[in-house]
Amino acid sequence: MSKVLELSKITTTALANLKAEGEKIAMLTAYDYTFARLADQAGMEVLLVGDSVGMVFSGLENTLPVTLDQMIYHTQAVARGSKRALVVADMPFMTYQVSPQQALQNAGRLVQEGRAEAVKLEGGAAMAATISAIVTAGIPVMGHVGLTPQSVHAIGGFRVQGKGHDAAQAVLEDALAVQDAGAFALVLEGIPASLGQQITQQLTIPTIGIGAGADCDGQVLVMHDLLGLFDEFTPKFVKRYASVGETVEKAFREYQSEVKSSCFPQPQNCFKG
Ligand SMILES: Nc1nc(=O)c2c([nH]1)NC[C@@H]1CN(c3ccc(C(=O)N[C@@H](CCC(=O)O)C(=O)O)cc3)CN21
Ligand SMILES: CC(C)C(=O)C(=O)O
Ligand SMILES: [Mg+2]
């Protein structure tokens, strides 16, 4: 790719072109300005302000209590840190399920107040009319099928979906319904790799996998999992690229002990009168 293209703003069209060219799409979650900036500089095509913010930032057990105002706040911070990456914001639980009208109004807030460039919502065929209403208003929608964490109580835990012929067929039909409704891309979460491959082949829009195998058009991970900052659970699909948690705790211990022993501050850390 040319230098100009490398630096150009990523759009939904750019992602479609990447699928057409067989180039993989790298997506990562982000929740604040500092880390969004680092991920953007590292070349991530998409920054997802995930409702996983409820788990890794707020310390909640699942994503259900996350509010629209919280998502707007985090999206604003990520948008400020992102020069090139496409900023996608998750629609939180109960901000899009009641009606397409409610969904459109709330998607509009994520764009107008949060500065999101697209929104993501969970669900397949049942969400087709909702996706269509948002897309018609000019807001790009990313779908999300398979393991949908906002349905954790209905699923009975964070369990792999689409195992067996009938369950696989249901996920495929959901994926096709999301595409037909006008979504520009689709997250495939927690499904067998073979099903991820099948859906990716059948869809014209890019698929972005998390625990959906190697054949998806792109991959997404939760930033804290990748960095080794979150270890309350480590799903099989996570790869740790660093041990930032250990590094941070070591620095904190050193600072704490230097305060106790009066090794910090030194004269160079002090102002002269
Ligand atoms: N930090 C973090 N990482 C995530 O990937 C993530 C979140 N939070 N919050 C929202 C959802 C919840 N997710 C999860 C959480 C746990 C498993 C998990 O434990 N999976 C088991 C398999 C479970 C089964 O099928 O029985 C695994 O070993 O992968 C999967 C997805 C993915 N998302
Ligand atoms: C795991 C990704 C796809 C997500 O929805 C989130 O971070 O909330
Ligand atoms: Mg989410």
Summarize it.
The chain has 273 residues and is of the alpha/beta class. The protein has helices at residues 3-7, 12-21, 33-41, 53-56, 68-81, 100-112, 128-136, 152-155, 165-180, 193-202, 223-227, 244-260, and strands at 25-29, 46-49, 86-90, 118-120, 141-146, 185-189, 207-210, 218-221.
Report on the architecture of this protein.
This protein has a single domain (3-243), classed as Phosphoenolpyruvate-binding domains (TIM Barrel), CATH 3.20.20.60. The protein is built from 12 helices and 8 strands. The chain has helices at residues 3-7, 12-21, 33-41, 53-56, 68-81, 100-112, 128-136, 152-155, 165-180, 193-202, 223-227, 244-260; strands spanning 25-29, 46-49, 86-90, 118-120, 141-146, 185-189, 207-210, 218-221. Strands 1-2-3-4-5-6-7-8 form an 8-stranded parallel β-barrel, surrounded by 7 helices. 44% of the residues are buried. The structure holds 5,10-methenyl-6,7,8-trihydrofolic acid (MHF), 3-methyl-2-oxobutanoic acid (KIV) and magnesium ion. 5,10-methenyl-6,7,8-trihydrofolic acid is lined by residues 52, 55-56, 63, 147, 149, 158-160, 190, 222, 224-225, 230, 233, 235-237.
Quickly list its features.
binds magnesium ion, binds 5,10-methenyl-6,7,8-trihydrofolic acid, about 270 residues, eight-stranded parallel barrel, binds 3-methyl-2-oxobutanoic acid, alpha/beta, TIM Barrel
Topology:
Layout: H1 3-7, H2 12-21, E1 25-29, H3 33-41, E2 46-49, H4 53-56, H5 68-81, E3 86-90, H6 100-112, E4 118-120, H7 128-136, E5 141-146, H8 152-155, H9 165-180, E6 185-189, H10 193-202, E7 207-210, E8 218-221, H11 223-227, H12 244-260
Parallel strand pairs: 1-2, 1-8, 2-3, 3-4, 4-5, 5-6, 6-7, 7-8
Helix pairs in contact: 3-5, 6-7, 9-10
Residues 52, 55-56, 63, 147, 149, 158-160, 190, 222, 224-225, 230, 233, 235-237 line the site of 5,10-methenyl-6,7,8-trihydrofolic acid.
